[in-house]
């Protein structure tokens, strides 16, 4: 399935969620494009973090833990 088909499906779901009202097709399409682009950016980032520089899976035991910050008033 191509980009346009995937966007069409997302736009259709937006239309359904909003009560199948006519006249907002362009808005649904543009929102669907934004959603599609965000989904594919996230997939690309996930793929980059899963593989090394040559596409070989990384073998790491490190766990990313956010640092605690303390603010004193």
Description of the molecule:
The chain is built from two helices and no strands. By secondary structure, it is mostly helical. The longest helix has 26 residues, at 25-50. It is elongated and about 45 Å long.
How would you summarize this macromolecular structure in one to three sentences?
The chain is mainly alpha-helical and 73 residues long. The protein has two helices and no strands. It is elongated.
Mean pLDDT over all positions: 80
- Net shape: elongated
The total count of helices amounts to 2
Give a quick account of the main beta sheet: strands, pairing sense, barrel closure.
none
Uncertain spans:
none
Strand content: under 5%
Considering DSSP H and I runs of 4 or more, what fraction of the residues is helical?
Answer: 55-70%
Write the layout of secondary structure elements.
Layout: H1 3-17, H2 25-50
Helix pairs in contact: 1-2
Features:
mainly alpha, 73 residues, 2 helices
């Amino acid at each position: 399935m191509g980009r346009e088909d995937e966007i069409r499906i997302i736009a259709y779901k937006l239309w359904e969620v909003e009560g199948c009202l006519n006249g907002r097709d362009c808005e649904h399409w543009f929102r669907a494009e934004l959603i599609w682009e965000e989904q594919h950016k996230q997939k690309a980032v996930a793929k980059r973090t899963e593989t090394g520089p040559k596409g070989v899976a990384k073998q790491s035991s490190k766990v990313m833990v956010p640092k605690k910050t303390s603010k004193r008033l």
